[in-house]
Amino acid sequence: MSARAVRSLVLPAVLVVLSLCAVAQEPILAFSVEPDPITILVGGRSEVRVVVENRSAFEADDVEIVWDDPAVVPALDPAPIESLDPFATDAIRLVLEASPDAVEGARTARFEVVYTYCVGDVCYQIVEALGLGIAVEAAADPTVIEDVRPTDSVEVGERATPFPWPWVGLGVAFIAVGCALFVARRAGRRAAAALMLVLAGALAYGVARNQHEQAQGIGAVLCTSCVGIEEARSVHDARLSPAAIDALRSLDVDVELSVFYAEWCHSCPYAEAMVERAAEVTDRIAYTFVDVEIDPALAAERGVIRSGRTVVPAIVRAGSDEVLFGVEDLERRLLDLLGVGR
Amino acid sequence: MRRLTIARRGTQGLGLLFGLFGVTGIGMTHILFPGLHCYACPLAVTVCPIGLMQNLIVFGTPPYFWLGTIVAYGLLAGRGFCGWFCPFGTLNDLLSFRKVRISKSLSFGKFAVLLATIGAAWYFTDTIFCKLCPAASIEASIPYLFLGVAKVNQPFLIHMGTLAGTLVGMVLVSRFWCRYLCPMGGLLALFNRVSFLHLHLDADRCTGCGACAARCPMGLEPHVEHDDHNCIKCGECVDACHLGALSLRYGFRRRT
C-alpha cells in the first residue's frame, strides 16, 4: 500500500475523531426513579429516589421536584440538588405518604422535575414531566418509615454516565477499517468503499435519530445574534430604566404581547426577561412565549417571518402588525410598541 | 479550447440557483449545502455545514447526519464542489485575476480555521465563525439590512470588515479564500485523495512544460501535484494542456 493511500485515510480518520471529540454528551439530564413502581399502604409511607444524571458538558442548577398528585404526597419537602456537575449523577430522596383516606388501587402519579441549565450567559428553565407507578394497598400492617429526616441530596456512588458506545463504535470501526487498509492493496478503492460504509451508517443512524429534522429546524430559524446581525444580550442585562418604568406606569390600555423564541437562541431569554420586567411594572401587560419550532404556524400567522426565514427573538403586540426583531435598543422599541415611548 | 471552463460556468450557475432557490417559496429543506452558503440567507433552502457543525457542538449533539453527509460529499467530488458548485467559490473565480503560486504552508490555514471554528464553538458555546464569515456578510447581513431586521451596528461592521478583507485578498491572489481560509474547503480537502472526481495525469504524455501551472487558479503545479488537497478539480489545467496529459475522471481510481 502506498504512502499516498495511507495519507488519504489518515485525514478522514482525523475528521471522525475530531468530530467525536468535539461533541459533548447528549443533552441534558436523564432521570430514573428507583424503585418504580412502589407500593404504599394506606396511611403509610414509602421512599423512592429520583436519580438524576447530567449527560451534558455544562452544570445544571436547582434541580427540584414539583409533585402533582393529591392522594399520595411527599411527607417532607424533597431537598433540591443545588448544582449538578457535568457528567455527574445525584439523586433526590422522596418520601411519599398515602393519606388515611387514600383510595386503594394502582395509579400513575405525575410529577415534574424543574431545573436550570446555563450555556455561557444564557440560562434556560427546563421542565421534565415524569410518572411513577404507585399501588395503594390496605393497611393491614402499616409500615411507617420511622425517623424520616430532611436530607440533602443523596450521593449515588460513582455510577458514571452511560458510555457513548455509538459514537466510539463509529470512530473505532472507522479507524479499524483504516488500519486494515494500511496493510491491504489497492487502497484507493478500499478506502472509498470503507468511507461509503461509514457515510451510509452515519446517515442512517442520524436520520433514525431525526437529526435531519434538527438540521432543517436550525436552518429555518434565524437567531439574530447567531450570525452576527446584532450582539447577543445576556438575560442578566434585562433591566428597565427608571424612565421606562415611569412610562410603563402611564400605560392605560390592556396589551397582549407574544415573544417568539427558539430554545437555542442566545438573545431570546433577554427579550423574554424584558417583557417580564415590563409586565411586573403594570398589570396592563399580558404576555405569552411561543417556541417557533413548536408552533411555526403561529409564527407565520403573526408575521415573524422575513423572506421565508423565521427570525427570533421577535415581539408582537396583539392587534398590531408591527414586529420587533432582535434585542438591540429593545427598551425604547418596546415602549414605542406599547405606545408610551417618548 | 476551454470546454471544461464553459461547462463549469454552467454548474456554478446551477450552484448559485440552488443557493437562491428560496425565491420559489420553498422553505428550508433537510439538505446540507455542499459548499459555503449561509443558511441565514433569506433565499437559502439548504443548511450550511459549517453553521450546523457549530450548532451541534454547542448543543452537544453527536453529528451522525452531518458526518454522513460530509463524507458523502467528500467521496462524490471532494473539493470538486469548490471548483464546480460553491457560490462563494464562484465569486472567488470572478475575482481571480492574479494566479500567483501557492504558498504551501499558508494553505494549511484552512485546516487551522476549521479547528479554530470547532474550538471556538465549544469554548464560547456560540457560532463564532458565522459572525465573521464573509459568505454570511453577503448573504445575511446585507439582505437583512434591507429587510429591516439588521442595522448598521458593530456586528454588521465586523462582517463588512471581514468581507472587505476577503475581497481584497481575492483580487490580489486568485481563489484566496478557497486556498487559505475556507473551513468548508478544509473539510472537503480531507477527502480529496479518495473522492471519485479526480485529476488523472498521463505521465507518458507530459513534457513538464508548465502550461497547466500557469492556468491553475489555486496556484498548483498539476503536472507534479495532481492529487493535492488544494486541487479544486476545476479542469483549467486540463483545458490548458495541449498534449492531453491531464484529464478529469470520475469513479474509483486506478493507481499509476
Structural description of this entry:
Helix content of chain A is 31%, strand content 31%. Chain A has three domains: 3-24 and 164-209, no CATH class; 29-137, Immunoglobulins (Immunoglobulin-like, Sandwich); 235-338, Glutaredoxin. In chain A, α1 (3-22) packs antiparallel against α2 (165-182). Chain A is built from eight helices and 16 strands. By secondary structure, chain A is of the alpha+beta class. Chain A starts with a helix and ends with a helix. Chain B is mainly alpha-helical and 256 residues long. Chain B folds into two domains: 3-129 and 170-189, no CATH class; 198-250, 2-Layer Sandwich (Alpha-Beta Plaits). Chain B has helices spanning 3-19, 49-59, 64-76, 80-84, 87-94, 104-107, 109-124, 134-146, 154-172, 176-180, 183-189, 211-215, 236-240, and strands at residues 197-201, 246-250. A two-stranded antiparallel sheet of chain B has the order 1-2. In chain B, α2 (49-59) runs parallel beside α7 (109-124), α7 (109-124) packs across α11 (183-189) and α8 (134-146) packs across α9. The model of chain B has no long low-confidence stretch (mean pLDDT 89). The interface between A and B is large, with 76 and 79 residues.
Detail the topology: elements first, then pairings.
The complex is a heterodimer of chains A (342) and B (256).
Chain A: H1 3-22, E1 29-34, E2 38-41, E3 45-54, E4 60-67, E5 72-74, E6 81-84, E7 89-98, E8 105-119, E9 122-137, H2 165-182, H3 187-208, H4 211-220, E10 221-223, H5 242-249, E11 255-261, H6 268-281, E12 285-291, H7 296-301, E13 305-306, E14 309-312, E15 314-317, E16 323-325, H8 330-338
Parallel strand pairs in A: 2-9, 10-14, 11-12
Antiparallel strand pairs in A: 1-3, 3-7, 4-6, 4-8, 5-7, 8-9, 11-15, 13-14, 15-16
Helix pairs in contact in A: 1-2, 2-3
Chain B: H1 3-19, H2 49-59, H3 64-76, H4 80-84, H5 87-94, H6 104-107, H7 109-124, H8 134-146, H9 154-172, H10 176-180, H11 183-189, E1 197-201, H12 211-215, H13 236-240, E2 246-250
Helix pairs in contact in B: 2-7, 7-11, 8-9
